[in-house]
């Protein structure tokens, strides 16, 4: 009978490998929010703090912001968080590879969103029901992603929210000189990577849409990227275990 893999093999990779994986996921988040905001109607599917504000503005009747689409995104995100919590904790309890599995499930949800966003004929605005379906699938994927990132617990690499990383970057720099925020450590590089990755993702997503790509192929491209990360993570973990 083959011995069980050690518990550590069920964990994400560490060190520089983890930073690269989380940075790629952050870029993917920027692309997804670019698609949802620019092509699906001024809502976010990952940055739910913005949606909470948009919902308040929309209910107040200011700014012409959507209410129903925002509620769909918020609700689907909550479903994704619940799904992620149940799935990932159950898989981890069995000493299985919960991190790559979570990425593969996220990729499947994004494939569903990409297929749901498929347009026939000339490019145009998606019908409302189709648009809500795409938003919901994207938000479920991002709700699950937030659980994944929180379970990983990589400092300053949340992949979806950059406010804390930006705050720590400034307050822990020579400007802020706050030792509790990492002044005098090597945390600044990691924080710059995190913030820069989100900016790069937004630029990439907006650039792809500006170049004439429809939401569907952009979503499928992100799905392939996330799936590739999910497939490569176990190899990274095995290499680190062998090296250690």
What key attributes describe this structure?
mainly alpha, 244 residues, disordered N terminus, Growth Hormone, Chain: A
Describe this structure in words.
The protein has helices at 15-39, 48-59, 68-93, 98-116, 128-152, 163-171, 187-210, 215-243. The protein is an all-alpha fold. The protein has one domain (11-243): Growth Hormone, Chain: A (Up-down Bundle), CATH 1.20.1250. α3 (68-93) packs parallel to α5.
CATH architectural designation = Up-down Bundle
Q: Classify the secondary structure makeup into a structural class.
A: mainly alpha
Cα end-to-end separation: 25 Å
Order of helices and strands: HHHHHHHH
Question: pLDDT below 50 for ≥5 consecutive residues: which ranges?
Answer: 1-9
Helix tally equals 8
Strand content: under 5%
Share of helical residues: 55-70%
* pLDDT averaged residue by residue: 88
Q: Briefly note the CATH topology name.
A: Growth Hormone, Chain: A
User: Nearest-angstrom radius of gyration?
Assistant: 19 Å
Shape: globular
At the first level of CATH, the class is Mainly Alpha
Estimate nothing, just give the exact number of structural domains. Answer: 1
Quick rundown:
The protein has 244 residues and is mostly helical. The chain is built from 8 helices and no strands.
């Amino acid at each position: 009978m083959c011995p069980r893999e050690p518990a550590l093999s069920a964990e994400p990779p560490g060190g520089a490998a983890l930073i690269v994986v989380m940075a790629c996921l952050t870029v993917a988040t920027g692309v997804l929010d670019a698609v949802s905001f620019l092509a699906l109607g001024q809502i976010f599917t990952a940055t739910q703090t913005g949606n909470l504000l948009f919902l308040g503005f929309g209910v107040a009747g200011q700014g012409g912001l959507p209410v129903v689409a925002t509620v769909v995104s918020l609700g689907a995100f909550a479903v994704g968080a619940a799904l992620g919590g149940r799935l990932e904790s159950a898989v981890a309890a069995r000493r299985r590879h919960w991190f790559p599995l979570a990425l593969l499930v996220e990729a499947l949800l994004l494939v569903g969103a990409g297929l749901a966003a498929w347009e026939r004929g000339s490019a145009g605005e998606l019908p409302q029901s189709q648009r809500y379906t795409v938003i919901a699938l994207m938000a479920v994927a991002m709700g699950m992603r937030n659980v994944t990132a929180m379970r990983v617990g990589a400092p300053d690499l949340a992949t979806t929210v950059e406010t804390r990383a930006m705050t720590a970057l400034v307050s822990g720099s020579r400007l802020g000189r706050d030792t509790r925020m990492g002044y005098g450590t090597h945390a600044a590089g990691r924080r710059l990577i995190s913030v820069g990755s989100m900016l790069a993702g937004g630029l990439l997503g907006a650039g792809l849409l500006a170049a004439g790509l429809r939401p569907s192929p952009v979503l499928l491209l992100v799905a392939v990227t996330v799936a590739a990360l999910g497939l490569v993570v176990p190899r990274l973990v095995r290499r680190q275990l062998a090296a250690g």
